[in-house]
Amino acid sequence: MYELKLSPSILSADFGRLGEDIKTADQAGADYIHIDVMDGAFVPNISFGIPVIKSIRKCSDKVFDVHLMIEHPDQLIPEFAKAGADIIVVHAEACKHLHRTIQLIHSLGVKAGVALNPATPLSVLDYVLEDLDMILLMTVNPGFGGQSYIPAMTEKIRTLRHILEEKGLQTDIEIDGGVDTKNLRMVIEAGANVLVSGSKIFGGDIAENVHQFKAIMAEYTK
Ligand SMILES: O=C(CO)[C@@H](O)[C@H](O)COP(=O)(O)O
Ligand SMILES: [Fe+2]
């Protein structure tokens, strides 16, 4: 079993008290902090950018898992690294030269991940698999929190884990979108190990929600 990590997405936090919400998730047991950057071009929504990441870096020492939903990410990757990103995830659909982008991220001493939209086939990763620290499978169409998990993605997770194992790779599989306490076991059993959740963590009692997710995850470490 792969090490399971909970990565709460701050897209659903209260931006008026972002620092406090992050500290609450951190202290309740979040492993990573998932940071959704949207540019209004790659996705039909705008979230926040580099100055916000720099500022919230003071609120948590947890791994900053930065999910870039932006066009032309290469131009800004050095700035995201400087702002405190520990993992930078770019979308394959946004990168003309994906291999070069992965090299750029690694050259900055940061872990590199690639995200795939639900309709993007796994085969786009065929020639970069060995270079990746993490693969993010979108389980909703990117752009918004609070959407429903797309059922067909479970098979995609299972297929990816199988491909990685056949190659002897232990790459992290992150899944993002519509994850809740009801489908969490299903996605873990399919092979996901980095689990993003936004609305189901930051909507309501943050600490209690983190505890509920972590209690389910703990069933797999006994
Ligand atoms: O990247 C994205 C959306 O594009 C996500 O990280 C969402 O923020 C997840 O939110 P929920 O579906 O868990 O509410
Ligand atoms: Fe995300």
UniProtKB/TrEMBL annotation:
Pathway linked to the protein: Carbohydrate degradation
Gene Ontology cellular-component annotations: cytoplasm
Gene3D superfamilies: Aldolase class I
Key word Manganese present: yes
Domain of life: Bacteria
Reactions mediated catalytically: D-ribulose 5-phosphate = D-xylulose 5-phosphate
Classification via SUPFAM superfamilies: Ribulose-phoshate binding barrel
Cofactor(s) listed in the protein's UniProt record: a divalent metal cation; Zn(2+); Co(2+); Mn(2+)
Single biological process term from Gene Ontology: pentose-phosphate shunt
Enzyme Commission number(s) from the entry: 5.1.3.1
Residues bound to substrate: 9, 67, 143-146, 176-178, 198-199
UniProt keywords, alphabetically: Carbohydrate metabolism, Cobalt, Isomerase, Manganese, Metal-binding, Zinc
Cofactor remark from the record: Binds 1 divalent metal cation per subunit.
Active site, per annotation: 36, 176
Residues reported in the UniProt entry to bind a divalent metal cation: 34, 36, 67, 176
Family: Belongs to the ribulose-phosphate 3-epimerase family.
HAMAP family: RPE
Role according to the record: Catalyzes the reversible epimerization of D-ribulose 5-phosphate to D-xylulose 5-phosphate.
NCBIfam families per the UniProt record, alphabetical: PRK05581.1-4, rpe
Protein name: Ribulose-phosphate 3-epimerase
The species this protein was found in: Coprococcus catus
